[in-house]
């Protein structure tokens, strides 16, 4: 976890404040770090589609903010637990996290959704067909483990496939889904560096705005 301390910035500014403004500092500090955390979260959400192609809304919206409280000027920008498990290797390095999946399921000739992922239950649906099986097949490029569709030269009546998966009449096996073992990640999110840059770049503006608001409403 990266910690960004803005205490030195606040201390330097407090020396130039009068008594009224100085009394508002605990509230202003909490408001400032909370607003900076929100700005950092916005930047993180915007960056995710630049790192990953067509990320799901679940992944993008997993970035969250925990605001500060008066007297405890600490705010957090974080990724919720479930998404953090599979995003962590793209921040810190390491092997892909696949959870309960036996491998990275890569659609080849399967009906993927708009995010490039397999719809839930699709493989099970495919395997209910007599022309589909799961296993390893030797190809010119080596052995490939996945979901395959057999070729049916003359599909029998009632077994002509569907719009989602038409009958395979190519005369050879068709790879629907490839099972890839987890690999070392190469992409990097840059989450921590981005949050630091956003906080430091916006501190003066946000602190000044919150201080002005606090003084204007002070009794």
For this entry, give a set of tags.
single chain; 219 residues; alpha+beta; four-stranded antiparallel beta sheet; two-stranded antiparallel sheet; 16% strand
Shape: elongated
Figure out the total of helices: 7
Kindly estimate the percentage of residues that lie in beta strands according to DSSP: 15-25%
Strand order, main sheet: write it out: 3-6-5-4
Helix/strand-derived category reads: alpha+beta
Give the low-confidence spans. Answer: none
Question: How many domain modules?
Answer: 2
- In N-to-C order, the SSE pattern is HHHHEEHEHEEEH
Mean pLDDT: 85
**Distance, first to last CA:** 39 Å
State Rg: 27 Å
Helix content: 40-55%
Major beta sheet summary: 4 strands, antiparallel
Total E-strand runs = 6
Report on this model:
- This protein is α+β, with helices and mostly antiparallel strands and 219 residues long.
- The protein has two domains: 124 residues, no CATH class; 77 residues, no CATH class.
- The chain contains seven helices and six strands, in the order ααααββαβαβββα.
- The strands form two sheets. A four-stranded antiparallel sheet has the order 3-6-5-4. A two-stranded antiparallel ribbon has the order 1-2.
- Helix 3 packs antiparallel against helix 7.
- The two termini are 39 Å apart.
Indicate the topology:
Elements lengths: L6 H8 L4 H5 L1 H27 L5 H4 L2 E4 L9 E4 L1 H12 L11 E4 L14 H6 L4 E8 L2 E8 L24 E7 L10 H27 L2
Antiparallel strand pairs: 1-2, 3-6, 4-5, 5-6
């Amino acid at each position: 976890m990266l910690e960004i301390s803005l205490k030195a910035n606040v201390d330097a500014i407090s020396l130039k404040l009068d008594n009224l403004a100085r009394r508002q500092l605990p509230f202003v500090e909490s408001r400032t770090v909370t607003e900076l955390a929100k700005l950092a979260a916005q930047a993180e959400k915007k960056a995710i589609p630049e790192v990953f192609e067509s990320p799901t809304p679940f992944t993008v919206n997993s970035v969250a903010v925990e605001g500060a409280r008066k007297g405890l000027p600490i705010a957090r920008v974080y990724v919720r637990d479930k998404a953090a498990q599979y995003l962590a290797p793209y921040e810190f390095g390491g092997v892909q996290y696949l959870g309960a999946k036996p491998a990275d399921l890569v659609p080849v000739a399967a009906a993927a959704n708009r995010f490039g992922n397999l719809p839930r239950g699709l493989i099970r649906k495919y395997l209910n067909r007599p022309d589909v099986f799961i296993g390893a097949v030797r190809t010119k490029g080596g052995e490939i483990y996945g979901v395959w569709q057999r070729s049916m030269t003359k599909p029998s009546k009632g077994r002509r496939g569907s719009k989602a998966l038409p009958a395979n009449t190519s005369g050879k096996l068709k790879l629907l889904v490839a099972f890839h073992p987890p690999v070392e990640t190469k992409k990097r999110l840059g989450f921590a560096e981005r949050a630091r840059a956003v906080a430091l770049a916006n501190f003066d503006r946000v602190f000044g705005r919150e201080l002005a608001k606090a003084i204007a409403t002070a009794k």
